[in-house]
Structure formats: structure tokens, C-alpha cells
Specification:
- The longest helix is centred in the last third of the chain and has 15 residues.
- The mean pLDDT is 94.
- The chain is globular, with a radius of gyration of 21 Å.
- Strand 2, helix 3 and strand 3 form a beta-alpha-beta unit.
- It has a 7-stranded mixed beta sheet, sandwiched between helices.
- It is of the alpha/beta class.
- The chain is built from 14 helices and 7 strands.
- Helix 8 crosses helix 9 and helix 12 packs parallel to helix 13.
Length: 307
């Protein structure tokens, strides 16, 4: 198995985490261990790295690639971060990295069923366990499918796509990625199909629903921030607007101090900011990185420091 994934915004993440050689850090989405290995290389004075991933392929790969470093790889979702740290006897950490992108390995391995470019059984499960895209597409109601595609894919033709999925599965189940792609294409006007790939938004929406990505992200952000020592940093790389909006709003809430009405002469609530933003605007890929890795185009890095 060759787990390939080009780490986006690598140098920006390392700089943003402000790594201490003797610190304790978490790569909450180890993937192919690109970010993990770079973090581990900075821990030259007894520091420790904990790596999490729910994909068993990623866990195997990261374990192999981090041999020789003071790093431990654990199969777990980042939403379970606090319980993982507790199991390792760790009370707090100095930094957490979350890269929310789907790995190149997952996208480029046809049998994982993520891609609309290759024909494979509908799957899309990052953990390789639980409900699959096949189950979702063939058992959810038309209303549920329409809602998922609209909310998670921001697809304005969601109702027509859901309607055609249900019509098709009355004839036979929708079994493969290309069968689903063909239904999507037939549901979208030709003029729109010519402008951009019509499948991207629906495939994204189904993947998000299958993996519970936004629910896990919400709880994962809370767990990561709670785990930080004062001065510790949380760095999050998002790849679409739904993720970025959630991260931005959560960071903003943690940085908000006084909630007294603006006409009060002085603060009476006593509320202090829990964190401070390291970058007010998201960090994006440089022109050179965009040229080297087209998948970095939508990446946005936001960093917050716990007070």
C-alpha cells in the first residue's frame, strides 16, 4: 500500500504552531504523516507527538513513516481527542494541527469510492466502517437526500438530483460512483455542466454526511482548544466554505471578551477572551504551491492561541 498525500501549507503550519522542542503536540489528522514528520523533526529536546487518524490505512502508513521519532500513532477520530490524551496520561498539549482535507490516497484509490473520475462501489467511508455512500444513496428519502445535497454541497439543483436518484433506484440500486455521476449530470442543465464539473458538490455533500464531518469538526474543535496549555496553538486547514465558516465562528467566539451592552460605562460581566487570533485573515497557498499542488487551491489556514 502506498499512501500518497501532499501536505498543504506545510511550512506555514509549522511556523504557525510555534513549536517548542520540548513540547507536546497533536496531529489530529495524520494522513500520510507529512505534517506529522515535520512536527516531529522540531521536537529535539524530549518533546512528544501524538498522531490521530480514523483511516486504518493512514494509521499503518503514519506508524511506518514516524519510526525513530518520539511519536505515537493512534486510530481515533479527532472528536475523541480528550479521551485519547487522558488514556496517554497527558493533561494538556502545546499545539494541535487539524488538516481537514481528504487525502490524495483516499481520492486516488478507486475502491475507496470517493471519486467521480473512477468507477467503483459507492463507499466514501474514511474509517472504512459504518454507513456507506451506497447505504445513504439507496435508503434515504428524497427529502433527506435533497437536504444533504443542498446543505452540505450548496448545490442549487439538489431537488432534481435527489428526485432522479430515487427514480433510478426504483429500477435498480445505485451501486457505483459513475452511476451516481451519470444521474447528477442528467439532473443539471447543459450550460452549467459546461462551466464546471457537475458532480463535485453532490459527492462532497454525500461524503460529509457519510462521515459526519461537520458534527465531528464541531466537537473536535472544542476538544482541541480545551486541551491546550496557555500559549498553546490550534491550527486548522479547511477546504470548503462550510468548514471554514464553522472554524471562523468558533475562533471568533473564543476571542470575544466583554459581552456588556455598548452603552455601559464599564464592564460588569468580567468575561475575558479565551484566545487570540494569530492571523485575522486565513493563510492561503503561495503561487508556487498552487503550481506544485493544485489541490491546495481551496486550502485556508486559521490559527488561534489560547490565553
Amino acid at each position: 500500500m502506498e499512501f500518497t498525500h501532499v501536505s498543504v501549507l506545510l511550512n506555514e503550519c509549522i511556523e504557525g504552531l510555534n513549536i517548542k522542542p520540548d513540547g507536546i503536540y497533536v496531529d489530529a489528522t495524520a494522513g500520510g504523516a507529512g505534517h506529522s514528520r515535520k512536527i516531529a523533526e522540531c521536537l529535539t529536546d524530549g518533546g512528544k507527538l501524538i498522531c490521530l487518524d480514523r483511516d486504518p490505512d493512514a494509521v499503518q502508513t503514519a506508524t511506518e513513516r514516524l519510526k525513530g521519532y518520539n511519536a505515537k500513532v493512534i486510530r481515533s477520530n479527532y472528536s475523541e481527542l480528550l479521551s485519547v490524551l487522558n488514556s496517554q496520561g497527558i493533561e494538556a498539549v502545546d499545539g494541535v494541527l487539524m488538516d481537514l482535507g481528504v487525502s490524495s490516497h483516499q481520492l486516488d484509490t478507486p475502491e475507496r469510492g470517493f471519486s467521480y473520475h473512477s468507477n467503483a462501489h459507492l463507499d466514501m467511508r474514511m474509517s472504512q466502517e459504518g454507513i456507506s455512500a451506497y447505504d445513504l444513496v439507496n435508503t434515504f428519502t428524497q427529502e433527506e437526500l435533497s437536504r444533504i445535497i443542498f446543505e452540505y454541497g450548496e448545490e442549487k439543483f439538489s431537488r432534481k438530483i435527489a428526485e432522479n436518484i430515487v427514480l433510478q433506484r426504483k429500477i435498480k440500486p445505485v451501486e457505483t460512483t459513475l452511476e451516481l455521476a451519470e444521474i447528477i449530470k442528467k439532473s443539471i442543465p447543459a450550460a452549467v455542466r459546461r462551466e464546471k464539473n457537475p458532480c463535485k458538490k453532490t459527492f462532497q455533500a454525500i461524503r460529509i454526511a457519510v462521515n459526519g464531518e461537520l458534527e465531528h469538526l464541531s466537537s473536535g474543535l472544542d476538544a482541541a482548544f480545551e486541551s491546550l496549555n496557555p500559549g498553546g496553538r490550534l491550527a486548522v486547514i479547511t477546504f470548503h466554505s462550510l468548514e471554514d465558516r464553522l472554524v471562523k465562528q468558533r475562533f471568533s467566539r473564543w476571542c470575544k471578551g466583554c459581552i456588556c451592552p455598548p452603552d455601559f460605562p464599564q464592564c460588569v460581566c468580567g468575561k475575558k477572551p479565551l484566545g487570540k487570533l494569530i492571523n485575522r485573515k486565513p493563510i492561503e497557498a503561495t503561487p508556487q504551491e498552487l503550481e506544485d499542488n493544485s489541490r491546495s487551491r481551496s486550502a485556508k489556514l486559521r490559527i488561534i492561541e489560547r490565553r
